[in-house]
C-alpha cells in the first residue's frame, strides 16, 4: 500500500465528492434506491478502490486480486459509481441504474457486471462468502486479501454471527471486515430497533481484533487496514463511524433517507451542496 | 422383464441375496473418490459429519474439510464463497435443515450467483423413521427444482448415489443431491448406465414368451421407492398388466423427450416418490405432459401431510407408498384411461 500524503488525501476527497454527486444523479434517474448509506460510505469506497485494493479494472478476474465483498447490497449506488470511476465500465452507464436491460441491477449481481465479487442484497450473508474466499486463498497459498463491507443493521441477522464465530475460530487473518456504523436502518435507529452495542466488545468476545475509526477520515481508514494486515492471528473488524447521507445536509443522520431517493428538486439542492464542498476541497490545494 | 441394457442386479427379486446399503453410504464413498480425482473438491459439514457420511473424506483430506458447527446458513454461504474461488464444495446436512433452513441463502448466493456448490440433503423422506416429521424432508425436491440454475438428482440406491456424487463434481454449477437414511436394496450395478438428465428404463413388458404384453402404464420413479415399483411391475405382469418402469433420477433437468415419448406410448402415468405429491417429481412430470402429451396420471407420495415417528418400512406403507399402493394406482389409472 502506498503512503498516504496530503496530496493523495486531497485527491481522494475530490474523488469521493464526485462519487457522491454521481450517486445523487443515479438515484434521481432511477426513481428508487438507497441514499443515506450510499453517501455515507463514499469515503470508504474511494479509499479502497483508489488506495488500498490491489486490483486491475482491465482484468476484473485476475486471480490474485484483492477481493472486496459488499454484503449490504442495497448501497450499490456507491459501489457502482466507484467502480465506474475506477475504470470497470463507463461513468455514462451509471444512469442505467435499476433500468430494464441494465447491468446495474437494483441489488448487485456478480454474473452481469465486471468488478463484483458476489451477488448481494439479502442481508447477513456477505461475511460468510468472504470467509469462503479466505479459506480458498489459504488452501491455495495465495496472498490476496479479502475485505468485507457490512452494514450495522444487518448485524441483526443470525447468519452474520455464524460467520463471526467461524472466522474467529479459524483465525482468518487474511480477512478484514468493516461495519458501516451509521446507526440507522429502515424502521429507525439501530439502538431503538434492536440494539447492537456494545459492538466492539461483542467482536472481541468472538476472538476478533477490533479497530474503531471515523469513516470519513482517509488517514483513519488507511491506517486501520494497515493495522489489520499486521495482525496475523485474528480476523479484524473495523467499526467505521459514518454519517448517513454525508455531504447533503438535509439527509444527514435522518433514518428516513435510508431507502428512498431524492426527487428532482431535492437532487438539485443536494448537488448544489456537494458542488460547494467540492469547490472548497479544490480551493484547499 | 428387467431391461437387460440397464444391467441391474440379477438377484434383485431374491431378498436373501440382496445387499442393503443406505444411499448416504454411496455418497460418502463417492465423495472420497471425487476428492482423489480433483484436489479442488472440498467438503463442509454442520455438525453431522458422521451421519451424512462426510467423515471418510474429512479423515482423508483434513485440510479440505471445514466444520461450521450447527449453522446451516453459514454452511451454504461459506460454500458459495469457496465455489466462486475455484473450489468444488460439497455441503452436507439433513435435508430439512439444508436445503430447508438455508433456502434463501442457497437461492441468492449459490443459484443466482451461479456458485459451483453441491448441496447434499441426507435423511430425506419419511423413511428417516423414528426421528419423526421434523427430520423427514418431504418438500426438498420442490423447493430446489423451482430455482433457476439448480440441478436436482435423487439416486435410487447406494451405487447410483456414488455415481451421482462423482458426476456432480464434474458438472459446472449448483447441484442438489437427495439421500435417504435407511439401508435400502442395492439393485443397480456398477455397469448400470447413469447420465445426469437421462432417464433409464428399468423394466418393460416381457417379450419372447409367446404373447407380447403391451405397455399400458408408465411408472416414473426416483429414489429408493423405485425398488417397490419394480416389485409392483413384476406382480402386475403376472396379472397381465404391462408396465414400463422408468428411473428419473434427475428431476431437473427432466428428460422431457423420453418421458413424453413413453407417455404417448402408454397413455397413462404413475409417478412414485418419497416426497410431497405437490411440486416434486410428479409435479414436474405433470407440467411437461399437460403441455405435450396429456394423459391420466396418479401420484404416489406424501398426500399433503406430514410424517411421524415409526419404523421406516411401516411409515412407507402407512403413507401410501408401498408395493400394493403402486399396484392399485396402476389399476386406477388404467381404468381412467378407458
Short description:
The complex is a heterodimer of chains A (285) and B (338). Chain A has 285 residues and is of the alpha/beta class. Chain A has helices at residues 6-30, 36-40, 42-52, 76-86, 126-139, 158-169, 190-193, 199-205, 218-230, 264-284, and strands at residues 67-70, 146-151, 175-181, 184-185, 188-189, 209-214, 236-241.
Descriptive report:
- The complex is a heterodimer of chains A (285) and B (338).
- With 285 residues, chain A is of the alpha/beta class.
- Chain A contains ten helices and seven strands.
- The mean pLDDT of chain A is 97.
- Chain B has helices at 23-37, 55-60, 72-83, 103-112, 140-145, 158-170, 226-238, 256-266, 281-292, 312-318, 323-337; strands at 20-21, 41-45, 65-67, 88-94, 118-122, 151-153, 175-178, 184-185, 200-203, 215-221, 242-247, 250-252, 269-276, 297-302.
- In chain B, helix 1 packs parallel to helix 6 (158-170), helix 7 (226-238) packs across helix 11 (323-337) and helix 8 (256-266) crosses helix 9.
- Chain B is globular.
- Chain A binds chain B through residues 63, 109-111, 117-122, 124-125, 128-137, 139-140, 158-159, 162-163, 165-166, and chain B through 42, 63-64, 66, 68-69, 71, 73-74, 77-87, 89, 104-105, 108-109, 112-114.
Chain pair sharing the greatest interface: A-B, 30 and 28 residues
Q: Do you know the CATH architecture of chain A?
A: 3-Layer(aba) Sandwich
Order of helices and strands of chain A: HHHEHHEHEEEHHEHEH
Query: How many E strands of chain A?
Result: 7
- The number of helices of chain B is 11
Q: Briefly, what CATH class of chain A?
A: Alpha Beta
**Proper CATH architecture of the largest domain in chain B:** 3-Layer(aba) Sandwich
- The coarse overall form of chain A would be globular
